[in-house]
Amino acid sequence: MRLVAQLRAQPSAPRTFERLLTSADGFGLGTASSLQRAIARIADGQPLGELRTHPDVVDAIGSVDQVEGQKPHELVILSGIRTGKSLMAAALAVHWSQTCDVSLLGAGEIPRVSVVSITLDLANVIFNHILGNVQGSPVLSKLLVGQPTADTIILRHPSGKHVEIKVVAGKKAGASLVARWSAGCIFDEAPRMAGADDGVINYDDSRKAVLERLLPGSQLVSIGSPWAPFGPIYEAYNTSWRKPVQRLVIIRAPGWRMNPVFWTPERCERLRKSEPDVYATDCAAEFASPEESLFSSVELDRATRLAPTELPPEDRHEYSAAMDPATRGNSWTLIVSTRIGNLKRICLARQWTGSRLDPLNPRDVLSQIAALVKPYRIHGVYTDQWFGDALAELAKDHGLMLWQDTMTTQERTQKYLNLRTKVSIGEVELSPEPMLRSDLMRLKKRTTNTGVQIVLPRTSDGRHCDYAPAVVLSMARWLDDVAPLPIVDGSREALRREIDASKMRAEKRYGNRRARWERS
To answer: Which CATH superfamily is domain 2-278 in?
Structure first.
């Protein structure tokens, strides 16, 4: 009887997850939307009540008949940014620490709630939510055991046992998740995680490692904004969305249904117009197109001058030249550009095409290039690293310097994306050279798990979008150095600033609450 009385006297978190998430002495999401509350009840295995037929719930989840009042084993939450996903995941971690069944554990066995993301820095976002809210709550702070570390916090279970919540790095075959019993696991940014066929450290192996070790009452939860249309989360979404069962519930909801306070109709429309790609994934919660044209035909037509094909050199103009060399099949291309204020102009576009039977003579091509760029007062040409040292020696014979491109793949990709932006806002003027337009039109932007790639497709005539690399190289130094444009409300930069400001306010609030409780 004395033991029972001691256990009953132990401090405990609010018993339902919805209350823990929304109460002031919990995680304080007092403005939770109908869909957020429905997710909280589903995650906890609670009846949905009046939310059962709410249109936002039905649209995001489907019919809930088979999961009504049943706690799902796995939960996938796909939504835009600023929708409370990380806060909900943090609250779930604390909830599991209080509700998992530890009765079968031996003395000294400490179960763990693991927080995994594609980087430790991202996983720390959830961990900071946990740490700040637990330390700042007069109720939750009493559950603390010892002092938290940079990546670990230990809470007292109602039974008196300890439960660890820890940020965990991904390792081969889920090795970081097999050491102990699991009181739950959160996969943050799960849509960007690779599958077993794509990476050594991958979602599939990690998920299996957790499922085999979950304690009763625990769950596996994957959260994130939709990304590329492939990978484990996309495959699960394709087969199981709007088909909720106790084994797996997938929720996909646009930002305005999760957080209508932030995602107002006006903000959504501004972002849709200013950055449609960002709107699709970060607001509308749609998976990105796997591959799409970098430029639209309308953008290229609008950016192309009617005449002349080549612009003569002018006094007091700064010029830049770049080439993409080739001798067989591909064309050897040359671009000369200039800049007037923020406007970047292509003045000259030339190409030389050889074949396997009749390859180009590099010495002859370099001689012609030197003659073409001389009137523009150009003494050096940017080039890629293809036979860079050998070509540089040949170019010297014609009084021409060659500067090899040293950009990383990521930097080069960003230059292509910057070029696209400048074309779309009218800061680039293209030559009416037909093949130039054709090469730019064929450029593709491919979304992958690691980011965006620029693809230069090869065509049947042997071309490889040969003008495109020369265009980017010739304008590279002018694509980033213009005065920053005003930040448009609802744009990616505006959202990033709001998120940073929100984090600072939260850190200040948590710090003040913690200080008050320490003084008391």
So the answer is: P-loop containing nucleotide triphosphate hydrolases (3.40.50.300)
